[in-house]
Design a protein that fits this description.
Layout (H helix, E strand, L loop, with lengths): L30 H5 L21 E5 L2 E4 H16 L7 E2 H25 L10 H8 L10 H13 L2 H7 L8 H18 L3 E2 L5 E3 L4 E3 L9 H4 L9 H5 L6 E2 L10
Antiparallel strand pairs: 1-2, 1-4, 3-7, 5-6
Helix pairs in contact: 2-3, 2-5, 3-5, 3-7, 4-5, 6-7
């Protein structure tokens, strides 16, 4: 999940993010992606239902649903603040949108696994101070955008300490990284066993990249961007060349003339 501009951005895991010993075609987020949440790493091995989500629903898993309006509002509120912050990361809007949706499914998996394994979760009630701490450096959190950042904080809190705590239920190692890796494996396996339904508006879910193809919010249209239509693999230059309504973050500086 894209967040505090003062923290080092971590790009979603793609093919290069597969660690030794992981199953082919499955990506594994780094510890920094869970601890700092500079970017919400995408677990790419989750099962996907053949049927699309109901109208107005962004994703559905085990009977729990995420409203499409919640996602789009959060994307709009996040990108509005990011556009005014020169330190914010620049990313395709489609990638931000996908991260928010898949991150929610991961948070649901954490909640389900925590109940099964006796792991204590953060409170369902999100403290306003926690929202401010998590997102305040991005920009002003006010009554107009608070609901979005409250929701993003709920997701973030479940993808931090609880992941390692889950991992400690399966490994005796004292290594924090080993605990996080074990927690990630549990989350990945849980998502593979429980079909996740995504709204067709996101396009086809790609289990290899952990992203969606065909998101109408951010289809690259420039000739340079078309060479990297997968938003998880666009270079910084390609992202900068996307139309303004297809990128999220500050306005790129004009390219220097040679």
């Amino acid at each position: 999940m894209l967040r505090d501009p003062d923290r080092t951005p971590v790009r979603p895991a793609a093919r290069t993010g597969v660690r030794p010993g992981s199953r082919p075609g499955r990506t594994v987020p780094a510890l920094a992606a869970l601890a700092a949440l500079a970017a919400l790493a995408v677990l790419a091995g989750c099962g996907v239902s053949d049927e699309g989500a109901r109208p107005g629903v962004a994703a559905e898993v085990t009977g729990r649903t995420l409203d499409l309006a919640t996602v789009d509002r959060a994307v709009d509120d996040y990108c509005t603040l990011a556009a005014a912050n020169p330190q914010a990361p620049l990313a395709p809007t489609a990638l931000v949108r996908a991260q928010f949706v898949v991150g929610w499914t991961q948070a649901v998996a954490v909640e389900e696994l925590a109940g099964e394994r006796g792991v204590t979760l953060p409170s369902e009630a999100i403290d306003r101070a926690a929202v401010q701490e998590a997102w305040g450096r991005l920009g002003t959190i006010d009554d107009d955008n608070y609901d979005s950042f409250e929701w993003l904080t709920w997701v973030e809190q479940r993808l931090r300490e609880p992941v390692g705590e889950l991992g400690r239920t399966t490994t005796a190692s004292d290594d924090p990284q080993a605990a996080v890796d074990a927690g990630i494996a549990l989350i990945t396996d849980w998502l593979e066993e429980h079909d996740v339904t995504y709204n067709p508006v996101f396009g086809d879910y790609d289990a290899e990249t952990g992203g969606f193809g065909g998101d109408p919010l951010s289809i690259p249209v420039s000739s340079a961007a078309k060479q990297g239509a997968d938003p998880t693999r666009l270079t910084p230059d390609q992202v900068a060349k996307l139309p303004a309504d297809q990128r999220c973050g500050p306005t790129p500086a004009p390219a220097a003339r040679g």
